[in-house]
Structure formats: structure tokens, C-alpha cells
Write a structure and sequence with these properties.
The structure is a homodimer.
Chain A (H helix, E strand, L loop, with lengths): L12 H19 L4 E2 L1 H8 L3 H9 L5 E2 L3 E3 H12 L5 E6 L3 H8 L8 E8 L15 E3 L3 H7 L4 E4 L3 H13 L4 E4 L12 E4 L2 H14 L1
Parallel strand pairs in A: 4-5, 4-7, 5-6, 7-8, 8-9
Antiparallel strand pairs in A: 1-3, 2-3
Helix pairs in contact in A: 1-4, 2-3
The structure holds a DNA duplex (22 and 22 nucleotides).
Chain lengths: ~210, ~210
DNA sequence: CCGTGTGAAACGCTTCACAGCA
DNA sequence: TGCTGTGAAGCGTTTCACACGG
């Protein structure tokens, strides 16, 4: 492959998140036929500084040309490889309630290469229900077998807070090591498992604090 | 009103988010009738360290008793005041699609004191639709007047990415200074406005990076 | 002269160690 | 003795300034 092997250094998580923004923007630019872009232009779109963009990229190599900028398609491809967005990730959705169904229908992330391959719920009334894309809601006991059969690598937890730990345990027992969880509150996982929490409550509380103290 | 006025220092955003977790946990403890708790116990629930909890609290004052711990009800009340969770915040939801409706129905945050007081959508087919809690979907032009009439202070944006900037502009024009936004991509706001992005795409990309590089 | 790439400085958050008080 | 509260150390991220190459 290229001259720049990924560096094994310590990469800030925040840098990874920004790289995913750059990746998205580059995809749009490529669709528009833009060939070249500078760190300044990328930065402006997201309200960042140019050196932030360059530093983020520098963790993984040198992708630009001095005096010129970056070749859009090449950089997009490189970021895709770095982020693992070059191939499709299959996901299990646990919870077919409000939030779960909204996520299921919200297929934006599909363009990024994430696909919900199976849906599970503990409620017998929901099990057996047929969703779009040929997916049927399965019972919790099916998580273990389904993960293996369908090469599922990521779990999404969209159950009520009380059921969160149980859902996470079922996923980790099935060998899942990457989980996105919606319910707030306490969930503990083995430490080789990456758990990312989306906490609406914390976000709202941060806005509340801002309003109350400005 | 006590002896400890809030300090005007620089408080880490991450500390604020953790305080919202403590607040939630204290509410549960209070419901269970627990009178006193130590930083160690709070920490254990969230997989944190005791000094982290004490440091977070210390930004705002001294709420415990040495050798004893914290009085649950007193601490909960104090955190509520600090975070602005002692009174209700009224919110405007922009976007009555998948995500918007899921948020509308997901009323967990209501217990925290956040209430969706009005819902707006640009789609004429959706305008006029009657939702629960006596709310009717209103057209975008109503954002300005409604914000004033109903004392709305927070905006939630749940529209497609292309429409995000427009929705945010409508909210800021109406005087909203705290916004929670779901669509990924570039949205710019005046700098006195707090914009918090919930980016599923970035979260998934971080998980993808983790899987691709472990 | 332009824009990238990067070592080093600045900064901010986390962690620590212990003084202080019940 | 027990647990809080906090100054200071440690550490990781952001910011800067400039060398480098087209």
C-alpha cells in the first residue's frame, strides 16, 4: 500500500470524531466534482481552525501537497480506510419501541456503511412483527445465534433504562465489542468493550446549565 | 441562598454532564428513602473515581460533611439549582418526521423538567396534525411568535441535514439561545448561542474506528 | 508566495495526596 | 477513624509558529 502506515500512537477520540466530519464533507465535495481542498476550507465549514484539521490528519500520515491542498478523492478514500468506513458494518438493534423504530427508519447512516441486520425485543407482542427491508423482530434469546450467523459487530441499545444492563449483557455475551446505548443511567461493560452513550438528558442538562448561568 | 454562591470559574463541560448523572441518581436514591451517600458510592455506580465526584462538586461549593458524606435530598436540591433543573424549561421541536416524533413520544426527559411546548414542520401535509398532550404541528413561520407567547427557551432540531441551517436560523431569529441538533453536517450559529450536536454518525464512526484498529 | 506538516508551548481536565474536620 | 474538599502534579488535547516543499 502507500508509504504511510497508520501510526499506533495515542489518538484523541475527539480527533476521530472530527475525521468522520471531514470524511462526510469530502464525500459531498466529491459528488460536486471538487478536486482539491485546503485545510482552511474544511475548517471553515465546521467552525474549526485550519491547524486543527491538519493536526488531526497528521496523526495518520501526510495526505496533502504543500502549497496545493488535498486531493479530495484520495483523502476521502484514506479517511474511509482509517475509520473503517470502507466496508459495511452489520448492526443489531435491541429495542423496537419509539427510539428503536426511529433509528431503524432513519437510514442516513446507511450511506456511511452501517446496516441494521437484525432487531430484537423482549416484548412478546413485538416479536414476529415484520419491519421494512425484510427484517422481523426477534426475541432476546436469538441475539447470541444471530450475531454469529449474520456477522454482526455493533450493537445499538434502545430499551428503557431498567432493561439497559440486560440488553448490554446479552450483546457482550454474544461477542459484541462495540455498543451504542441510548438509555441514560448506569450501564457497566467489560473493559474491552467500547460503549458509547448518547445521553439526551446530559445534553439537555448542559443546555439548561448554560441558560441558567449566562 | 446558602453560604456558597456559585463560583464564576471555568467549569469543564464534562463536569456538568457528570453532575446531571449525579442529580438523576440522587433522585432515585431519594425515592428509595436513602438519607446519606458518599462520593465513593456515587462514583461506583457510574464507573468513576470518588475524587472525580468530589472535584466536580467542589466547583460549586461544599455540600458534604467530612467523615459523613452527603445528605441526599440537600445535594439533589443543590444540583438542581446549579443545573437549572429546579424549574421547567419549555422547548420547541422543529421537525415532525421519524426522529422528531420519537423524541416527542420519548418523555423520559420530562421528569427532568423539559417539556416540548410546540412542534413545527415545513411540510404542509404535517402542519395541522394533532399530536398528544394537545399539541398541533405548526408551520415554520409560527416559530417566532410561538417562542415569545409560550416562553420557549430551548430548540430541538430534528429535520433532514439540508434543512438544518434553515431550522437553526429560524430558532435563533426567534431569540432561542440553546439548541440541540440531530442532523449531522455543518450548522453555524451566532456565538452567543449554545448548539449541542447529537451526532449518531460520529458515534458510529468512532465505534467503527475502534473495531477496525483494535 | 502558498498551504502542509509538526515539534513545542499553552491550556484544561483528570488524578493524586493530604490537610481538615466531624 | 472516616470522608470531604482542594492545591498541585500529571497528562492529554489544542494551539501556535515555523520549517519545508511545490
Amino acid at each position: 500500500m502507500g508509504a504511510n502506515a497508520p501510526r499506533r500512537a495515542k489518538i484523541p477520540e475527539s480527533a476521530i470524531r472530527r475525521l468522520s466530519f471531514y470524511h462526510r464533507h469530502l464525500r459531498d465535495l466529491q459528488a460536486l466534482g471538487v478536486a482539491t481542498i485546503s485545510s482552511r476550507e474544511i475548517a471553515r465549514v465546521y467552525g474549526l481552525e485550519p491547524f486543527q484539521v491538519r493536526k488531526d490528519l497528521s496523526y495518520f500520515g501526510s495526505f496533502g501537497r504543500r502549497g496545493r491542498g488535498y486531493a479530495v478523492s484520495r483523502l476521502r478514500q484514506r479517511l474511509g480506510l482509517i475509520l473503517g468506513l470502507d466496508s459495511e458494518w452489520r448492526m443489531a438493534l435491541v429495542g423496537a419501541g419509539n427510539i428503536g423504530m426511529a433509528i431503524f427508519r432513519y437510514q442516513e447512516y446507511r450511506r456511511l456503511g452501517f446496516r441494521i441486520a437484525a432487531v430484537f425485543d423482549a416484548d412478546p407482542d413485538k416479536v414476529g412483527r415484520e419491519l421494512e427491508h425484510g427484517i422481523t423482530v426477534e426475541p432476546m434469546e436469538r441475539i447470541g445465534p444471530a450475531v454469529g450467523e449474520q456477522d454482526i459487530r455493533i450493537g445499538i441499545v434502545a430499551v428503557p433504562p431498567e432493561a439497559a444492563q440486560n440488553a448490554v449483557d446479552a450483546l457482550t455475551a454474544a461477542g459484541i465489542t462495540a455498543i451504542l446505548s441510548f438509555p441514560g443511567g448506569q450501564v457497566l461493560v467489560p473493559k474491552d468493550v467500547a460503549l458509547r452513550r448518547v445521553s439526551l438528558e446530559a445534553d439537555l442538562a448542559a443546555l439548561s446549565y448554560f441558560l441558567a448561568n449566562k
